[in-house]
Amino acid sequence: MKNPLTSYSRTIRRALLRHRIIRIGLVILILWNLVDLHFILRLVAETDAVYRDQPRQTERIYIAMVNWNNEYLLRNHLSKAITELSWRLRPENIYISIYESGSYDNTKGALVELDAELEQLRVPRNITLSYVSHADEIAAPPDGEGWVVTPRGKKELRRIPYLSRVRNHSLESLRKLAKQGIHFDKILFLNDVVFTSNDVLELLDTNHGDYAAACSLDFQKPPFYYDTFALRDSHGHEAVTPTWPFFRDASSRRAMKQLQPVPVKSCWNGMVAMAAAPFLASPPLRFRGIPDSLASYHLEASECCLIHADNPLSKDHGIYLNPRVRVGYTTAAYVAVNPTLNWLTPRSVLQGLWWNRIRRWTTFSYFKESAIRKKIAQWARWSPDRREVGEFCVVDEMQILDVRGWYHV
């Protein structure tokens, strides 16, 4: 007969052992988090310590920008930032090309004032003011490329081919100048964002200037990043969380945690620098949308992602997201993420790390991506010539141009 006291004693010892293992596990977990936090916050403290007065190397930069209904931002920040940037990069090293696309506010007036300021600095430039509005585009006969039959049974104008056409307008001077023997090393594409000259200098120097493309991080409602449509990690996956450290792929996530240039397959995020040579090649690199026939499967892809899929330099020179360069669509958004300590506080670091882990452990990108691949495969079966190299850019959406913007269908 077993002694009940002996059995009870064993139960107590097992309970204490389990309790000890749990305590050891908790201590290890806490230490792991503290080491991770210390390492990251040390990098945060060092990130903003470097002040760059001038570019490390003299390059010729072609600055391209598209404006639509940006009067407020131009008058309150953007025009001043562009003027200061022109002085920092020096007028003889730059060319500014701005295309205004039928705004409803007084963006044209703000650009006329900017033109006068750039004239005083003798900055070479071309500012085109278009009087073709979204309403005019939509009212045109639904012929040619860029139109799709939507689930509502109507033939409607797609947003992405329109944006591609507008962005390509901002590159027309690049070709004209090349015919005159005037060439540029890089193209700096600017969205309607708040930035400083130091942000641009840091961006241009990403990976010591060796890249096919280098992008900033953009924010409209911090701490959530904005450009989910174009950003893909180094394996072509969408970000797993909208906050730092964002990525599912280990190499992209590791670089983001170290605040180093992050290898990605695509990005745009408010401001991007690209090597200029592919845009002057034969055939030249151009912004585009996916074919209308593919879009009819209720699919779409950002022109800012497809440009990287088409760029012959992407594979050999890489595409990088620079976490040290953060821009905002408002002044408040910019201040919320600059300096780095505003963006990565101890609390946000711990929350971001664990949210990212939980999402990676509990979600799978395969199912969403597989459904899109099946649609593309179905489309491709109709013709041996059908192929989409930017498959990783494609999402299950249909985006239609609207008089005041755009909408999903």
From TrEMBL:
- Specify one Pfam family: CAP59_mtransfer
Transmembrane feature ranges: 21-41
Lineage, top-rank taxon, reads Eukaryota
Top-rank EC class of the record's enzyme:
transferase
Which GO terms label this protein's molecular function in UniProt?
glycosyltransferase activity
* Keyword line: Glycosyltransferase, Membrane, Transferase, Transmembrane, Transmembrane helix
Q: Supply the EC number(s).
A: 2.4.1.-
Report what the protein is called: Alpha-1,3-mannosyltransferase
Give the organism, scientific name.
Answer: Penicillium ucsense
